[in-house]
Design brief:
Mean pLDDT is about 90; it is low at about 1-15. A hairpin with a 2-residue loop joins strand 7 and strand 8. The longest helix has 18 residues, at about 1-20. By secondary structure, this protein is α/β, with parallel strands linked by helices. It has one domain (about 35-415): Metallo-beta-lactamase, Chain A (4-Layer Sandwich), CATH 3.60.15. It has a nine-stranded mixed β-sheet with strand order 6-5-4-3-2-1-16-17-18. A nine-stranded mixed β-sheet has the order 9-8-7-10-11-12-13-14-15. Helix 7 packs parallel to helix 8. The protein is about 25% helix and about 20% strand.
Length: about 425
Amino acid sequence: MKIGTLFIASLLICRLAAGQEKGATLPAWKEGYLDIHFINIGEGGNASFLVMPDGTTMLVDIGDMKIAPDAKEIIHIKANREKTVPELVEKYVRQFHPDTKKPVIDYALITHFHSDHFGEIHDSANISTKGKYNLFGITALYDKIPFGTMIDRAYPDYNFPNDLAVADKSIGEYIKFVRYQVGAGHMQAQKFKVGVADQLVLKKKPAAYPGFSIRNICGNGVIWTGEKELTTSIIHPSSFAGSPIPNENHLSNGMRISYGNFDYFTGGDLPGYKWPYSAAWDDVESHVAPVIGPVDVACFNHHGWLDAQNEFYVRTVRPRVWVGQVWHASQPGEEVLYRVASTVLYPGPRDVFTTNMHDANFRIQDFLIEKVCKATYGHIVVRVAPGGKTYKVVVLDPDDAQYKVKSVFGPYESR
């Protein structure tokens, strides 16, 4: 019986590996695998889709910015844009969701309220027929694919650090969406609970995968201490006097996903640079790095902009693979690539993958890109093998209707 089980498992792995070749289509997810999809949404911003070992699914962000057509000199605008960002993400999720006929996203998580992470109003007349709220980004995707639970940093009051509905019209429309769908009983909503490992859990076969967990590391300036569910806060309303209130980046939700020996961290737009005359809480990265610890894969904080991936953070999390969800000519910053490439900060090889790098980067830092970047344009898929001992990185063609494989890297051994 054990021999037969091992044979079937080996055959499954071989079949999955065989499909991960250039020009082929990515084999469908199979139970036991952890898939992390970084979706190239062009100039939209961040969007990732995860399929956990038991088939539980999660969306992390869906940026949907309103970009001026003449912005192509600084923003990598997708040349053959035929779909809106929500339509693009809908198509992608339907392709790779375990249930292709009636997909439901179990968890939809917004790291923070910036347009390149949850969207913004494009057309004031584009109102949902399911509720009196505007359709863009996250709200438009829900109209196509339902969510089980919506999670953000501020539910249900949306009043930190100020009245969010008043501060931004797009946030106000999002709040209308959440309250309508929750009130109608169509969806649940929760505030991201820092420090816990029992909010984002496997929903289908949790007992089958005891080595899988998601630890909520930070959010709203609250940070897990590394002990039990204890937290500490670096951002207090009393500190706002005489200085600007924290912007959304500082309040980003961050989490560490673990599967056996494999660890992955994503933290929205967490900054790591303390600007002159800024508040003490400006550098969030240095506070979260020790409780994150070394990981195998890390998503660039703040798209790899100049204020993120500080030296202490890079030295501490030291991933084998960095993934950058980039959309602007300043992403990733040259100084950021220097830091993540530095073997002084941590030894050993490392590979960088980005979704949508602007051409301007190649004119400024081509030698650095050639040194560490394995791919600069595509959908990036991290596929972790059953048990979490190894993983591969697969780059898919974002301009191909079937998302054909462009290149495959690995297998990498988890720590």
